[in-house]
Amino acid sequence: MSGYDEQASAYLILIEGGSPSNYSAWSPDLPGCIATGDSVEEVEREMRAAIALHLEGIVEDGGEIPEPSGPGVYVERKPRAVA
C-alpha cells in the first residue's frame, strides 16, 4: 500500500471487456495508467492500486498530481455476438 490509496479513489475509472476475455481499466485523468483483472471487482481493485502507485511516481519525479475529474466507475457492457 502507498500513501496515495485514499486519493486514488477520487479518480474516475473506465472498465471494458469481460467474458470470454478479462476486463481492462483505465482513467482518462491519468494517461498510461491501466490494469486488468478476471472480474469487475478485481480490475477495479487493481486499478485503484495502479492509480495510487502512479500518483506516488508522479510526486517522486517532481511532477504535479492532476486534478481528478470525479470519482466513480463506468463499466461498458457489450452484448455477446450471436452466432
Any overview of this molecule?
It is a single chain. By secondary structure, this protein is an alpha+beta fold. The protein contains 2 helices and 4 strands. 30% of the residues lie in helices and 22% in strands. It has a 4-stranded mixed β-sheet with strand order 3-2-1-4, covered by helices on one side.
Mean pLDDT: 89
Spatial strand order of the main sheet? 3-2-1-4
Give the amount of beta strand, in percent.
15-25%
Shape: elongated
User: Largest beta sheet, briefly?
Assistant: 4 strands, mixed
Gap from first CA to last CA: 44 Å
How many runs of DSSP E, i.e. beta strands? 4
Which secondary-structure class do the elements indicate?
A: alpha+beta
Number of helices: 2
What order do the SSEs take from the amino end to the carboxyl end, as H and E?
HEEEHE
Percentage of helical residues? 25-40%
Poorly predicted regions:
none
Radius of gyration: 14 Å
Write the layout of secondary structure elements.
Elements: H1 5-8, E1 12-17, E2 23-26, E3 34-37, H2 40-60, E4 72-75
Parallel strand pairs: 1-4
Antiparallel strand pairs: 1-2, 2-3
